[in-house]
Amino acid sequence: MIGFLRGKLALKAPPLLMLDVNGVGYEVEAPMTTFYNLPAIGSEITLHTHLVVREDAHILFGFSTEADRSMFRTLIKVNGVGPKLALTILSGQSAEEFHRCIHNNDTQALVRLPGVGKKTAERLVIEMRDRLPDLIDSVGSSITNIDKVQHINNPKQEAISALCSLGYKPMDAGKMVQNISTEGKSCEDIIRLALQGSVR
After folding, report:
1. What is the DSSP letter of 15?
2. Cβ proximity of 144 and 68 under 8 Å
């Protein structure tokens, strides 16, 4: 099991990033909560990782905090929730928002996340309620603020592409960002605003 990686950030293409660890490039899939806190390309970072082994692939998932990884590991234990859906849930809601949904039985907010149907939302509320006490301490830990950087490409188009990778349909992703003022905003900023708007 690979517990963490420390190296230079070589690529940011949500939900994929690449970490150069002593000359070896590790492809890592990460939630948007991790992308929001990434520094500039070339900076050294540490990611808490979870390795998923399948017959056809070994997939690394990375998180900026231990709390996010703990939440991810708890989510994938829920019946019907795989790594991709867990990543989408972590991208669409903060840990605090997710806790609120579980405590308040707010399945409506969960259903707005791509890939989460009514039955899955109900299952999440039922199964996660018993597991939340074990996560409260770790999820409550603060995330270190790191300066964000601007993308040199088209951040709006990158944001749409990232939203599609998270499970949104291209048309829906376009609508989510069309009314957002993108001037001076990074791809991560646009995605954050789009996701915030989608769960209201």
Report:
1. T
2. no
For domain 4-63, the question of CATH label 2.40.50.140 is answered with yes
| Residue 125: CA count within 13 A, CB half-sphere | 19
C-alpha to C-alpha distance for 85 and 121, rounded to whole angstroms: 12
Going by DSSP bridges, is the β-strand pair 4-13/44-53 parallel, antiparallel, or unpaired?
Answer: antiparallel
What's the CATH code, domain 66-139? 1.10.150.20
Residue 117 to residues 80, 114, 154, 200: CA-CA distances in angstroms?
Answer: 11, 8, 32, 17
- Is the pLDDT reported for residue 94 higher than 60? yes
Model pTM score: 0.67
Whether 49 and 55 have beta carbons less than 8 Å apart is answered as no
pLDDT tens for 41-55 read 999 999 999 999 988
Q: Does residue 178 contact residue 194 with C-beta atoms inside 8 Å?
A: no
